[in-house]
Amino acid sequence: PDCSRLILLSFPQCAGEENWVDSRTIYVGHREPPPGAEAYIPQRYPDNRIVSSKYTFWNFIPKNLFEQFRRVANFYFLIIFLVQLIIDTPTSPVTSGLPLFFVITVTAIKQGYEDWLRHKADNAMNQCPVHFIQHGKLVRKQSRKLRVGDIVMVKEDETFPCDLIFLSSNRGDGTCHVTTASLDGESSHKTHYAVQDTKGFHTEEDIGGLHATIESGASGSLETDFMPLGSENLLLRGATLKNTEKIFGVAIYTGMETKMALNYQSKSQKRSAVEKSMNAFLIVYLCILISKALINTVLKYVWQSEPFRDEPWYNQKTESERQRNLFLRAFTDFLAFMVLFNYIIPVSMYVTVEMQKFLGSYFITWDEDMFDEETGEGPLVNTSDLNEELGQVEYIFTDKTGTLTENNMEFKECCIEGHVYVPHVICNGQVLPESSGIDMIDSSPSVNGREREELFFRALCLCHTVQVKDNDSVDGPRKSPDGGASCVYISSSPDEVALVEGVQRLGFTYLRLKDNYMELLNRENHVERYVHLALRWKRQVLCVLPQFIRARVERNAVEGLRTLCVAYKRLIQEEYEGICKLLQAAKVALQDREKKLAEAYEQIEKDLILLGATAVEDRLQEKAADTIEALQKAGIKVWVLTGDKMETAAATCYACKLFRRNTQLLELTTKRIEEQSLHDVLFELSKTVLRHSGSLTRDNFSGLSADMQDYGLIIDGAALSLIMKPREDGSSSNYRELFLEICRSCSAVLCCRMAPLQKAQIVKLIKFSKEHPITLAVGDGANDVSMILEAHVGIGVIGKEGRQAARNSDYAIPKFKHLKKMLLVHGHFYYIRISELVQYFFYKNVCFIFPQFLYQFFCGFSQQTLYDTAYLTLYNISFTSLPILLYSLMEQHIGIDVLKRDPTLYRDVAKNALLRWRVFIYWTLLGLFDALVFFFGAYFMFENTTVTSNGQIFGNWTFGTLVFTVMVFTVTLKLALDTHYWTWINHFVIWGSLLFYVVFSLLWGGVIWPFLNYQRMYYVFIQMLSSGPAWLAIVLLVTISLLPDVLKKVLCRQLWPTATERVQNGCAQPRDRDSEFTPLASLQSPGYQSTCPSAAWYSSRSQQVTLAAWKGKVSVEPPPALSGSRHHCSSSPSHSCPGSRVQLLV
Predict the structure, then answer these.
(1) Is 515 annotated among the ligand-binding residues?
(2) Ligand-binding site membership of 217 (annotated)
(3) How far apart are CA 73 and CA 78, in angstroms?
(4) 911 in a domain, yes or no?
(5) Do 153 and 132 contact (CB within 8 A), yes or no?
(6) Nearest Cα to 779, choosing from 186, 382, 53, 369?
(7) Closest by CA position to 621, among listed 805, 800, 815, 783
(8) Is residue 848 part of a domain?
(9) Which are the catalytic amino acids?
(10) Considering the entire predicted model, what is its pTM?
């Protein structure tokens, strides 16, 4: 067959993509242009490879080294290492080069392994086989070798390898069904339609002989024949063919130009707030280091200004040394002092941090509470660099469909002229066991009412895009709702399936669509046939509802149900024919097609007669509402970003408790902007929210108090485009700032009708606002990848809806409910541990190097080291590294159950609280104080004093060893005092590290090592331990060093305790095992007061709670002796009622 007509490709654009224009000419099957066409200009398009990896084999080493040397410490130690190689320094180049090499190598191996996993996933996708037509024959090749213009054959349950124009299928009507679960999280079946002129080509030979041209982006009139195409003819990469044996399509976009790939953004190196703080602290310590080196260099030349000090009789200079340039000598000395004091910059901290992150990430993957039995999936960690960022999240941006909801609809009820019908609860063909039979509330309708009732049911049976699958297995066994013949309804809209299944229980069964006729089975078991008029148009119609139906619809909407009004209109034959002609003319229009279709539907949808309304429930994911409530109490603002319409999304937000009954909704939508200008709407909303925020301060629970007004903002994609669009004066910042100010005053924000790139725009807007909050994005589909990559932390929901989001995320979880434990427990612990690790490393290095600085004042600034080379090298590697590493892996300052019960504890660590400058200065001053105690305590204690039994006094190496011994014991015991969670491993590591230091020192100084060219430490440590005053000095100086920190902690805990410390104090007493936290309205229960600050008890829907006060504490169960006489109090049936109370029985 020869089809030499020109096909014009014209797709509607999504909001946020208005400026994207692509013009291309595609010759189907790579055939020659049709006769009379313009000169053929070949266009080059990318191949079909997908690349999600970050490195290649060739650029891994230079790119990875560049990223690693962006770290201040790595770059600094590289400079120090080069200096040690160039000039004569007090220490060996190995002391800096070896730790640096170890850090770079470990980090490179870790990041290379993670990227190798991405390469592996890409190769699996790019090498999968694809069938395509070549010279009328079916050929198989790898997906990456596909080119634009190839004709592809896709079989049932296969994924489309690229963006295709649907040419034909094995179905006679030229339709196919696809699921887009991996793209947008929707598991429902969507119907697509083949090109009208090619849907009859069913064989490889027919398709192979097709002559056609596709033009994208063309406009204006064309002299040749054409066939306009729309989104219903487009099959996107990542979607899966369902319930259709095979289809043929032509590739129009391949590889990184497919819509799925364009929604991705380039992977950038995400850096946590802790790492940024580390870099800032390192810069401060680098300044301190330079100051020390400058001071010592200046004082050295001041000291040597007198001749007898510069050239003593026993160390005369050579003639070449005397003639050396003074500035060159000074610069060399400056570099030598830099090398001597360089240990203040803890390069080993980066090694420990990398190990802590890598090993600590396994605690997430091993968490059995985050394993989903239904899917058999557990959490995944794709990158461990952001573990501590999970404890700093301030904004969460979540998708709706498939993330908050299961996209699983239930038909709840329908209302017809005041009569409410509640059938069996139907869910995807399954009758729930707890439901009852058909209930007809109120009295039966009259004869006239019976006709309208049947007309209502027929409307539900006919007005849909549902297809019937006569098979007992569609993605698993599923039976018909009536338990009879095996059949399944499938549709692009799960709402439609729920309605058709629901009305089947009420007596009307949809059978099939055949030969353009729709068939249904009525209550009398008679088959009725109706002509099928395919409109395929979704739009909202405003109507006036009768009082009862209106009240019912409002009631269902408040409960979060999806409502639909059903109306009809009678047409005579002439009107019907006129409507068909009008619609056909609008469909084939090239210019303003959507506008003409809207005008045609406007004429049809006049004078409609209302029949009734329906209510359908979109099931929330398990514990989604509890998770959001807990996150809000933790001080995290939750935003929902979805492509759904406003009404549907708002209903879901009410159901998951993002919006509450006392929440005043503010709308920033296209409809309102059309009525008023954007400027007026923004200023009006700003006045509304700021008027209340000026007089009321938000409480400690993210605006969940019933005593103040909460605001929720709803914005759509088109309105966001106007806000982000530059103004005529070239500036868009004013509108953005005003929009952000409104958002800050709202407890929750809903963004609907969002394109994937707009989701990323929203995240970026908040991310770079003046507060620079930490953002987290969570989604389950490929349309969420852009915002997952943009946020500080990206989390993909694995579930059943594809792997695109999980593959491109930093972390992956099976269900949304697991986000609660990931942030409130794991995130909290990760941040506490790593913040202590960072501050402790700086503290112990100040203790380590400041005595070396003081020692220069007593050795003529000669760059003499206070400690032996072995101590210099092993201090950070062996003596003090393992205890802090274990602490950073296992510390639990509060129990897991307490963190889950009381989300407000998350606020104690928010905004990088433990790595602020005030805390950093405290740790630095503490290190300086301890260093002064170490040095001068040892100095004054043994100045001009005999400390051995034979009357000898200590030498400089014994003095340095004494200072080093006191320091090792002090910094190790300081960590022991900070440890709250003790296990046998803690005891073994802490006391074992001290024992290792003693044993090593005895061996190092007790044996003459043949490989050493010096024996200055021989018998030094043993001589020190043989002295009684040395033992006294060690005990006394360690005690004095630890005393200020102990006093500070005791006073602060008693006078100014934090919420965490109050919980620690309260939970120090023995108490019963606490139950799992149920985050409901405990804060709204004035009748309940707990004697233990951590005991936050909550009432839940339709549950009974027993509370008893026993010996000054609260417990679920009374003592066994009293278990026979328990008192119960039931909570309010509506758990969101502000007035619910829980009585405390004594």
Answers:
(1) no
(2) no
(3) 9
(4) yes
(5) yes
(6) 186
(7) 815
(8) yes
(9) 399
(10) 0.71
Whole-angstrom Cα distance, residue 880 to residue 975? 10
Which residue in the block uniquely carries the two structure tokens 């490879």? 49
Considering the domain architecture, whether residues 802 and 902 belong to the same structural domain is answered as no
The residue to which tokens 């999980």 are assigned: 806
Q: CB–CB of 197/2 below 8 Å?
A: no
Give the model confidence (pLDDT) of 416-443 as tens digits. Answer: 877 888 875 444 444 444 444 444 444 4
CATH of the domain at 237: 2.70.150.10
Whole-angstrom distance, CA of residue 675 vs CA of residue 64: 54
Give the count of domains, the chain: 4
Rounded distance between C-alpha atoms, residue 79 and residue 348, angstroms? 16
Convert the pLDDT of each residue in 163-204 to its tens digit.
Answer: 999 999 888 778 888 887 777 656 667 888 888 888 888 888
- Name the 3-class secondary structure at 325: coil
Tell whether the torsion through CA atoms of 333, 339, 340 and 342 is positive or negative: positive
Q: Which domain holds residue 452?
A: 411-431+447-471+486-569+607-617
Rounded to whole angstroms, what are the CA distances from 935 to 640, 708, 875, 927, 983?
58, 59, 17, 12, 34
E strand map for 540-691? 562-568, 609-620, 637-641, 663-668
**Are 1088 and 1142 in contact, with CB atoms under 8 Å apart?**
yes
Residues 790 and 837 in one domain: no
Tokens 């054409």 label which residue? 226
pLDDT digits (tens, 9 = 90+) for 554-564: 787 767 677 88
Residues 782, 910, single domain; the answer is no
Give the pair of three-digit tokens for residue 16.
């946020």
State yes or no: 780 annotated in a binding site.
yes
Question: Does 931 reside within a domain?
Answer: yes
Q: Residue for token digits 């049976």? A: 461
Is 643 annotated in a binding site? The answer is yes
Q: Indicate whether 758 and 874 sit together in one domain.
A: no
350, with CB counted inside 10 A (0-12, 13-18, 19+), is: buried
Which segments within 349-404 are labelled E, that is strand? 380-381, 395-398
In terms of residues, how long is the chain? 1146
Residue finishing a domain among 1063, 1089, 1114: 1063
Looking at the fold, whether 935 and 787 belong to one and the same domain comes out as no
Provide the CB-side half-sphere exposure for 578 (13 A, CA).
8
Pairing of strands 439-441, 419-422: antiparallel
Tell whether 1066 is in a known binding site: no
What's CA 169's distance to the chain center, in Å? 40
Q: Decide if 518 is inside a domain.
A: yes
